[in-house]
Structures are given as C-alpha cells and as structure tokens.
C-alpha cells in the first residue's frame, strides 16, 4: 500500500493546489454531475480516465460485469445509485459501459471456476439473457469471439434492465433522460457506442454525432385515449 500512500501525498501536495477552487466549490455547493456511468469493476477500466472527466462531472457505479439488476429484484447498490442519480441529482444521461477481455463474461465459458464463488455466480444471473443470445444466435465463435459477443450483448441487456426502473422509465417518458451503451476496448482505447436505431455498435469518432441507445423523446401513449394534453 505504500505506493498508494505516496501517490495520495503527491496528489495533496502537487495536484490538489491547482484544483483547490474546484474542490472548494464542490464541497460548498454539492455535486451536480451530468451523467451516471455504470461500468465494470475491472481495474483496467477507469471511467473518469477514459472520459477525462473532472471531479463532479460523473456519478460512477462500478460492479462485476457492469450489471443493472431489473427493478423487480431485491434492492441493492446499483438500483439505489440509479434512483439517486435520476431523482436526486437529475442526471440527463446514463451510460452502461462494458469492455473487452471481461472476466465476468469469460466466467460463462468456465462455470466450474465459479463453484467456490456463489455470490459472483448469483450476481451474473443478471447477464444470462446475453449468454442465451450468444449461445443460440451466434455460431462458430472461438473463445475470444464468444467473450466479445457476450460483453457487447450484455450491454444491451443491462440497458433493457435499466428501463424497468421507475425513475428511469418516468424520466424517459418526460423526455429528460438519454440512455447510452458503450464498449471500451482496453487494447486500443477506442469506444464503441450502441446505436438503438440500427441495433449495432459503432465506433465513436471525434467530430461525428454520438450514437445513443435511446434518445430523449417525450411520450404519453394514453393521452389521446384519455383526453389529456401533454405538457
């Protein structure tokens, strides 16, 4: 741990002074991040570094496999983070970020490795839909290809789980929330973003529109039937 303590001292002595005004403002006025990022706990995937975010920019929730349990499941840290980010912090964007060489997705190819990790095995049940898609819709993949396909499909599955959360569903219906699905390639530093219109992941390119999983679009499907005027 000595190296981390040394780096903490370096931060306090050299980095913090240049950003002291920012930290003072955050301490006195609170946080107002614009986005929630749900990413994998993998030590190689650091959301703030990937996005070059400043303190206060991102509300981050990390867990094994960048998973979002459906709302019907028991309450947990991810569900609470989603609800707080949307209802209390008013974030306008939520990103589910998967990545290459994901150990959680590799576990599906080697279930015996989880026999002594029952909590991990139970947690990964929230990604079984992605595993089913890859097993039944993809053919001829090697181990690397299977892991990559699982990681990409898992991002889509977790976005679908997000939509089951009441806070997310209502914010989407009010046209106040955009959902994003990203895939970070560790080996290249590139980001693929899920395009909800085409159903494909597309390389994010500087100067070009960012593909999004679900755009904000105000809707009240029962308004015409009930004589209600949408605000």
From TrEMBL:
DNA repair among keywords: no
SMART domains according to UniProt: Pro_CA
Keywords: Lyase, Metal-binding, Zinc
Any GO BP: carbon utilization
Reaction equations catalysed: hydrogencarbonate + H(+) = CO2 + H2O
Chain sites annotated for binding Zn(2+): 40, 42, 99, 102
Highest rank taxon of the organism: Bacteria
Note describing how the cofactor binds: Binds 1 zinc ion per subunit.
Top-level EC class: lyase
Keyword DNA damage: no
GO molecular function, one term: carbonate dehydratase activity
EC code: 4.2.1.1
Cofactor(s) the protein requires to work: Zn(2+)
Homology family: Belongs to the beta-class carbonic anhydrase family.
PANTHER family in the record: CARBONIC ANHYDRASE
Biological role: Reversible hydration of carbon dioxide.
Protein's UniProt name: Carbonic anhydrase
Lineage, highest ranks first: Bacteria, Pseudomonadati, Pseudomonadota, Alphaproteobacteria, Caulobacterales
